[in-house]
Amino acid sequence: MRILKRASALILRREITTYQRIMCKMDSLFRVHPSVSQAMAENKPVVALESTIITHGMPYPYNLSTAKEVEAIVRAEGATPATVGVIGGEVHVGLSSEELDHLAQSKSPLKVSRRDLPYVISKGLSGGTTVSATMIAAHRAGIPVFVTGGIGGVHRDGENSLDISADLTELGRTPIAVISAGVKSILDIGRTLEFLETQGVCVATYGASKNFPAFFSPQSGFTSAYHVCNPEEAAKLIASSLSLGLQSGVLLAVPIPEEHAASGQQIEDAIQVAVAEASAKGVTGRDVTPFVLQKVSFLTEGKSLQANIALIHNNAKVGSQIACALTKQMKDRALKTQTLAKPANFPLNSESNIVIIGGINVDFIAKGKTKTLKFGQTNLGSVSQSFGGVGRNIADSLSRLGHRPLFISATGADSNSDAVFKYCKHMNTSGVARLEEHSTATYCAVITESGELSLGLGDMDIHQQITERYVSQFEKQLSLATLVCLDGNIPTSTINYVCSFAKKHDINVWYEPTDSEKACKPFLSDAWKSLSYSSPNLAELCTMNKTLGVKTPEVLPCTLDETLSVAVALSRPLLEHLHCLVVTLGANGVLLCGEHDAGTVNLQPRKQKRKRQLCALHYPALAVTSEGIMNVSGAGDSLAGALMAGILQGEDTDSCVRMGLLAARTSLASPHPISPLLTLDTVDPNNVYTETWPKPSLVWTD
């Protein structure tokens, strides 16, 4: 196990582990609250909530009490609330009680829409997120259901002023289900619905009719295209939209409860008065809605505020029920398609175009709360558990990126293996043997407050049970595979067997060397000549060459130019047989070495060996601050898994590498080796609108 190995592969040269019991950060600008991160890791329902209702929708203290009441309703329905807000230039997905108080009592908070995010973040400001900004944050965090009061729309006279809320365009490009009470009657509801249709947004009323609600009134005089009668129907609609990959949202309009709709006409009359006054006073743009709401509250003696709170409570209840139904349906679907691991030496048959053979283990990270730890006595700290192993990590990464690799490994028949299979239920673990009288591989790291390793202990004997004899039971699956990945934890004899089998059947094999000591295994014989890919760091690349008798530098270089020069020189001998080398260079990024193809490296699996022109392409690392790192143990495996996913999907080289870099960054910001937030969307370079991609450079051709 190499928990402190080259996951510095993209950012840090020194190998550290920084498990933190604080807010999870997806990057330096986004923070996910621990309760939200934990719920998502355990595949539990989460409901996103906006915060402009706190900062601009209601006066204090009603705003604060309503926000906390809404979160309580979400929890009571079995989901986890994730209120989104911007605090000090960081987007928070999930707010603590103190942070809710801070936003509720802010003197001049900003109203943050998509347009405002770059400015607010660059200035380190705070504010409440609108529907559009909340959708962005929720989608980035992987939350599919978002509850709000009402969405924005096309303003009256919008055909001339072009005053159209960003909420509508966001619904057209962000796959989130928005639960709302329709739109306020101060807007042009007919044109709003037409605009949503143009944006490709599926609109449905929640209930027995298609009547589209107008916030304070259950009827607006317009109808939705469809209606859903209960949480299960709503969840199926959302699941269908997500499965189609349409990249547009779903709007579910929930009418205000009848007992609070009775005063709707009085409120509507007050709205007309308030709108006229706003026009007379020259109130325009984003200031119209807060002005009108405040005036309406005054004219109705607080009845509008009571109705507002009631419909938000109702939306939270309905939205949470839908989120729970959606989670259940997704779990049921996964159970139908997943083959459960068989607790014996004879796993169930499973076919896949990818086979991963490697280690699986349980990691325990003991993190001190002081800079130095005193041995021989008890130190203050925290202990966390996660699930690792290089093979498991790569299989996990691929599973979250739309593939279904067959994972071949071994565990003991103990409580740790029970925990492993429960956590890995999204993976095809039918090739994992559970062996009596053996212990599941475990690793315990004791680290200081700053992340420095003080002591590490590992029990990895079970990996030696991934024998040639055991793996040979999967020859059918191996023969059908497009790619087979081996990690360095498995016995050398097993590596030799797979390489020999791959040579006979013309199968591409990827070797992940795991650490410097194990990097030599295929190179102790001619087995390495049957490899197609490998992803070493510079130290592992040195070990490979040393094993072959090639002279290597005594000390690893420090400058970028020297590093690239050494990496190219050490890659050249291996490329006599390997198709491609992915050399991870820490803070210096990634170096691809292989067949030259129109100015880039050809990553696609080769069908036959041939004489070729070689080259090396250097990709700089993505910028990530050390404060944005929670766990470095799986970043390199995320990189490898996403690269494999891109290759198997037929992506071009740039897209494959960028997928890998994004996957690594996502996992660096997670308490888990492979982030539960890892999806095809989060590694799609086209979805990363804030990223300035570093350009690759061709550093060598032969």
Mind sketching the topology for me?
Layout: E1 24-27, E2 30-32, H1 34-41, E3 46-49, H2 52-57, H3 62-76, E4 80-87, E5 90-93, H4 97-104, E6 110-112, H5 117-122, E7 127-129, H6 131-141, E8 145-147, H7 158-161, H8 166-171, E9 177-180, H9 189-198, E10 202-206, E11 226-228, H10 231-244, E12 250-253, H11 258-261, H12 264-280, H13 288-299, H14 303-337, E13 354-357, E14 361-368, E15 381-388, H15 390-400, E16 406-412, H16 415-423, E17 428-435, E18 441-447, E19 453-459, H17 468-471, H18 475-480, E20 483-487, H19 492-505, E21 508-512, E22 533-534, H20 538-547, H21 560-574, E23 580-584, E24 590-597, E25 600-601, E26 614-619, H22 635-648, H23 653-668, E27 697-701
Parallel strand pairs: 2-5, 3-4, 3-8, 6-7, 8-9, 9-12, 10-11, 10-12, 13-16, 13-20, 14-18, 16-17, 20-21, 21-22, 22-23
Antiparallel strand pairs: 1-2, 4-5, 4-7, 14-15, 18-19, 23-24, 24-25, 24-26, 26-27
How do you describe this structure in short?
Helix content is 36%, strand content 19%. The chain is α/β, with parallel strands linked by helices and 702 residues long.
The name of the CATH superfamily of the largest domain reads: Ribokinase
Task: Characterize the biggest β-sheet.
Answer: 12 strands, mixed
**Count of separate DSSP helical elements:** 23
CATH class of the largest domain: Alpha Beta
Proportion of residues in β-strands: 15-25%
CATH architecture of the largest domain: 3-Layer(aba) Sandwich
CATH fold title of the largest domain: UDP-N-acetylmuramoyl-L-alanine:D-glutamate ligase
Structural class: alpha/beta
User: What spatial form do the alpha-carbon principal axes imply?
Assistant: elongated
Helix content: 25-40%
Rg, alpha carbons: 28 Å
| Low-pLDDT regions | 1-27, 336-350
Gap from first CA to last CA: 36 Å
Tally of extended strands?
A: 27
- Domain module count: 2
Q: Roughly what is the average pLDDT, rounded to an integer?
A: 86
